[in-house]
Write a structure and sequence with these properties.
Strand content of chain A: 15-25%
Helix content of chain A: 25-40%
Number of domains of chain A: 2
Oligomer: homodimer
GO molecular function (chains A, B): ATP binding; diphosphomevalonate decarboxylase activity
Structural class of chain A: alpha+beta
Largest sheet of chain A: 6 strands, mixed
CATH topology of the largest domain in chain A: Ribosomal Protein S5, domain 2
Strand order of the largest sheet of chain A: 8-7-9-6-1-16
CATH class of the largest domain in chain A: Alpha Beta
Pfam family, one (chains A, B): MVD-like_N
Protein name (chains A, B): Diphosphomevalonate decarboxylase
EC number (chains A, B): 4.1.1.33
CATH architecture of the largest domain in chain A: 2-Layer Sandwich
InterPro entries (chains A, B): GHMP_kinase_C_sf, Mev_decarb, Mev_diP_decarb, MVD-like_N, Mvd1_C, Ribosomal_Su5_D2-typ_SF, Ribsml_uS5_D2-typ_fold_subgr
């Protein structure tokens, strides 16, 4: 009995958190955005999607398993990714007659996130980036990360930014076919390696409208949104690229917080209004303002995706000032138990001023855990296979 | 000993709640707004400022007492009102040599609100309208409400809309001296008398930035605000006037809720962001949406001023549908004990669907009382004097 011919490849892919936000599609089918966006890729040591793609002549159908659950693979978004990747594989096979005919085999994809899918941590971005990257490894495609981003984008818009590390921009693009709506590296993680992120994960609350539906409601009904997309964001894209090139945290902080608030303002201006920020989020914002005010400069910047979790960016030098402050308030929550969390000295609680106490109490009630992480690199090929 | 010559006049003045919001000044000194606004004057049977203005040769200084507390009368805003009213009185005295020389006497103003000043119920609007109206009565000025509105506006912008009953618009005006920035009647209360308002008063919470400072922060820093002021509001002003003329509640509801959300979106887009809506407000919004959805039409409209209180407008015919629904949720709070509140049949709690229960619980925790009221008339002269 011959051993079965199974081909497989595995990857880790990172989460990214935008600092100039993607919200709104000009083409919902191709996931073409109304405006560009910029994100920070977070370290896979902390948050990652781990995906194995395999194919074999014996497989009878494409399949996708996510965190142990069989998922529907027939959706248009996943199918678009598989179709494009198979097409690229066929080009490889056409040029090399010895290359095995993988494009015709069925795919088995198994994926696991090391963070709760429902936590609102851009799991679909990491997930689709990992899916595309794993299959590209399996197919031995020579395709560049930017070209792969065009494919991942069709799975989940923000996934295109998870195919590279460091600081990544997603070009809005002008063409109808989306060929120029791709992600590119603004700077690698090594350019500004001391960027840290503290994620304040909000207690599970019934989530408001999902982002796919929500953003199109905004496009259809907000009277402010087009102004954001056409006037506000383009200027910020340039300014944010410059802030990253210059390692100018003051500018980075001002742009990220303003853009987060601007995006949530457009959500509120949607009909019916969409609320992702809750009282806990608001408290986190106030506390960030208080930290900055106490230090008389921007030591931290907050940003919120389509959910109540605060992502607080700061530089390694300010870890005590920022993470130490939050450790004093929510040091009893899970997330501090690692080596890095333990090394952070909690601030003295006695420093809390009047207004802070109210916010601190809200945070204490509304936060379920924290995640300590920072800027990281792009997808890594791994030899640990999930199937 | 001759009896002392004391002149006095008293008035009640109403609260108004805008449905197209005033936010932002193009001239902070004259309280000239960046955009027009429209409000509903609420019944003085429920909410009112009661003010007595008196003057006498023996008075040695102008004084103002609000709810039993001496207030500073030397502020530029109050002084502007007194100066203009005295100027008009001088014109009266110049034309009638028998008219007593009141303009030269010091003024004693005593004012009482029948609602908590801190409740965020536009107390300054009612207060300044009552102050101006009481002095105008005292001085026997022939001035029209619209001309008085020009004076009251300098005390508190939205006060200009409390000098008339029913449905009142405040013209943005174009002139630098503010002479055309006045309030006018869109329609009297009798035109559409069945407009009701249920106010859900939020439990006292530390208020965010006050409106005077907040609106100028928005003007200075929001990237969306000018678009609101120049593009969004002007169209809504026309549409809202039409909705009122046509007694078209569906249009009235759509415009009020959208404009409230648009205003709060601009607050969120302010740097630093301003939050007036909290989780209780958000719950009230969701419940209003659910009521409308259940009835397949807009039976209610919500609007929020610079605070977390929801003002829910509805028509008398829908009192059971709207007020009865909220009575089922917060019927144990103060505010239902009057004749009208008792007559409202609370809805069956069993009708609550899943999402409603979460919102209902938030409302139960976050609401301290309700106020049942409706559209009402303009300031009334009264003979009950406070001094």
């Amino acid at each position: 009995m011959a051993a079965e011919e199974i081909h497989r490849a595995s990857t880790h892919a990172p989460v990214n958190i935008a600092v100039i936000k993607y919200w709104g599609k000009r083409d919902p089918k191709l996931n073409l955005p109304t405006n560009g966006s910029i994100s920070v890729t977070l370290s896979q040591d902390d948050l990652r999607s781990h995906t194995t793609a395999s194919c074999a002549p014996s497989f009878t159908g494409d399949s996708l398993t996510l965190n142990g659950q069989a998922e529907d693979i027939s959706g248009a978004r996943t199918q678009a990714c598989l179709r494009e990747l198979r097409q690229l594989r066929r080009e490889v096979e056409a040029q090399d007659s010895h290359a095995p005919k993988l494009a015709d085999m069925k795919l088995k994809i198994v994926s696991e996130n090391n963070f709760p899918t429902a936590a609102g941590l851009a799991s679909s971005a990491a997930g689709f980036a990992a899916l595309v990257r794993a299959i590209a490894f399996l197919y031995q495609l020579p395709t560049s990360p930017t070209d792969l981003s065009r494919i991942a984008r069709q799975g989940s818009g923000s996934a295109c930014r998870s195919l590279q590390g460091g600081y990544v921009a997603w070009n809005k693009g002008e063409k109808d076919d989306g060929s120029d709506s791709v992600a590119y590296e603004v700077a690698p993680a090594s350019h500004w390696p001391d960027m840290r992120a503290l994620i304040l994960v909000a207690s599970s609350d019934k989530k408001d409208v999902g982002s796919t539906a929500g953003m199109q409601q905004t496009v259809a009904s907000s009277t402010l949104f087009q102004h954001r997309a056409n006037e506000v964001v383009p200027k910020r894209m340039h300014a944010m690229e410059k802030a990253i090139h210059d390692r100018d945290f003051e500018a980075f902080a001002a742009l990220s917080t303003k853009d987060s608030n601007n995006f949530h303002a457009c959500c509120l201006d949607t009909d019916p209004p969409i609320f992702y920020l809750n009282d806990t989020s608001r408290a986190a914002i106030r506390l960030c303002e208080m930290i900055n005010s106490r230090h008389d400069r921007s030591v931290c910047a907050y940003t919120f995706d389509a959910g109540p979790n605060a992502v607080v960016y700061y530089l390694a030098n300010d870890e005590e000032a920022v993470a130490g402050y939050f450790k004093a308030l929510v040091g009893d929550k899970p997330g501090w138990e690692g080596k890095r969390g333990q090394a952070i000295q909690a601030a003295q609680k006695s420093v809390l001023a009047g207004g802070e106490e109210v916010a601190a109490k809200l945070l204490q009630t509304g936060i379920s855990r924290v995640i300590l992480t920072g800027v990281g690199d792009g997808p890594r090929r791994v030899e640990e296979h999930l199937c």
